[in-house]
Amino acid sequence: MSDMPKGTILQRDKETYAIRVTPPSGVVTPQELEAVAAVARKYDVPMLKITSGQRFALIGLKEKDLHAACSELPFRVAGHYVQACPGNQWCQLARQNALEMAGVIEEKFRTFDGPAKIKMGVSGCGTCCAESYVRDIGLVGTSKGWNILVGGNSGGRARIADVLAKDLPDDEAVGLLERFLEYYKTNGKTKQRVARFVEARGIESIREALL
Questions:
Q1: Can you give the pLDDT at residue 77?
Q2: How far is CA 30 from its chain centroid?
Q3: Across the 211 residues of the chain, what is the mean pLDDT of every consecutive 10-residue run?
Q4: DSSP H helical segments within 24-136, as ranges?
Q5: Residue 104 lies in a domain
Q6: In the prediction, which pLDDT does 53 show?
Q7: Which of 77, 96, 122 is the C-terminal boundary of a domain?
Q8: How far apart are CA 147 and CA 123, in angstroms?
Q9: Does residue 196 lie in a domain region?
Q10: Please, are residues 24 and 102 in contact by the beta-carbon 8 Å criterion?
Q11: Does 165 share its domain with 189?
């Protein structure tokens, strides 16, 4: 099949495929869970897995079922994603509304077309339950606003993100993210993840360009 759905991953058996779907900020309703389960039953998916990025992986799909399964799932397949903690709507430790901020970021940047994929984490406090320090872009809530982090990675060349700015209110945080992503898009190399981009440029150079 030449027109595989974006993000399709060939499995070890060289015959079946995995797809990953993205509930916004990892939040699901009972109806959406039931819809995912219905797709898994209908297409005899042998494994459903919750990923570290708060997504669902459907593993072992047959090639002939890929497009139909993707069209019947209640969430978008592949692409950038934003994971988030429950934030101050629910958690007594949180300082900021992580779910609301994650929703704004998801809506604004979901179609961002940059050098490589983007993983974002929005944590309502320094406990960092959304793994903000090891994501391409991270936000961490403080009592004064948001700390903006760039250049994290949890892969084989793991990297703790650098702090780009501190204690920004919501609108300034989103504005800085937009400027950073455009800077990355303009200056990053094809398939160069944010961690490698920040290493190459240096955080001081990036701050000078954006702040």
A1: 87
A2: 22
A3: 80 96 92 97 97 92 96 88 95 98 92 93 97 98 98 96 98 98 97 98 98 94
A4: 30-42, 66-72, 98-109
A5: yes
A6: 86
A7: 77
A8: 10
A9: yes
A10: yes
A11: yes
At which of 77, 94, 113 does a domain end?
Answer: 77
Q: Are residues 43 and 136 in the same domain?
A: no
C-alpha count within 13 angstroms, C-beta hemisphere, residue 166: 5
> Are residues 65 and 85 located together in one domain of the fold?
no
Residue 15's domain spans which residues? 9-77
The rounded distance, in Å, linking the Cα atoms of 69 and 188 is 34
Question: Phi first, then psi: what are they for 147, rounded to 5°?
Answer: -90, 135
In a domain, 130, yes or no: yes
Radius of gyration, alpha carbons of the chain: 18
How high is the pLDDT of residue 134? Answer: 98
Domain count, the chain: 2
Residue 36, pLDDT score: 96
| Alpha-carbon span 74 to 76, nearest angstrom | 7
Quick one: tokens of 33? Answer: 């869970």
131 and 203 share one domain = yes
Tally Cβ neighbours within 10 Å of residue 173.
23
In a domain, 4, yes or no: no
Alpha carbons 68 and 114: distance in angstroms, whole number:
28
79-105 exposure pattern, b = at least 16 Cβ within 10 A, e = fewer: ebbbbbbbbbeeeeebbbbbbbbbbbb
Helix (H, G, I), strand (E, B) or coil at 124: coil
